[in-house]
Design goal:
The protein has 94 residues and is an alpha+beta fold. The protein is 37% helix and 33% strand. Strand 2 and strand 3 form a beta hairpin. Helix 1 packs across helix 2. The longest helix is centred in the last third of the chain and has 19 residues. The protein is globular, with a radius of gyration of 13 Å.
C-alpha cells in the first residue's frame, strides 16, 4: 500500500473546505484505481491535512494529480497556499 499526506496551511474557511471535500472531492478520488481510504482532518489554526491510501504507487500518484487539479479549480480561495506533500510505501498498519 501507498499513502500520501498533504498539509494545507492558511485555510480561510475550514468548515466550507471540509464540506466541499466531502461532497465533491471524495467521490472523485474514490474512483481512482486502487483506492483504499481518504481522510480530511481539521488540525486547527487554519491547518488541514489529507491522507490518501492506495493499493499501489500509481494510485497514490494519480491522487496527488487529481488533488492538485481539484484545489486549483475549486478550492483556491479556501486553500491559498500550496500543500506540503509527503508520500511513501506503508510499512506498518493496524
Amino acid at each position: 500500500m501507498y499513502a500520501t499526506v498533504r498539509r494545507y496551511e492558511g485555510v480561510t474557511d475550514p468548515a466550507e473546505a471540509g464540506r466541499r471535500v466531502s461532497e465533491e472531492f471524495v467521490p472523485l478520488i474514490s474512483q481512482v484505481p486502487g483506492f483504499v481510504a481518504y481522510y480530511w482532518v481539521d488540525a486547527g489554526d487554519g491547518v488541514m491535512l489529507s491522507t490518501s491510501v492506495f493499493e499501489d504507487q500509481a494510485g497514490a500518484e494519480e491522487s496527488t494529480k487529481r488533488a492538485a487539479d481539484y484545489v486549483r479549480e475549486s478550492l483556491a480561495s479556501l486553500l491559498p497556499n500550496a500543500p506540503q506533500v509527503t508520500a511513501g510505501e506503508v510499512v506498518a498498519s493496524g
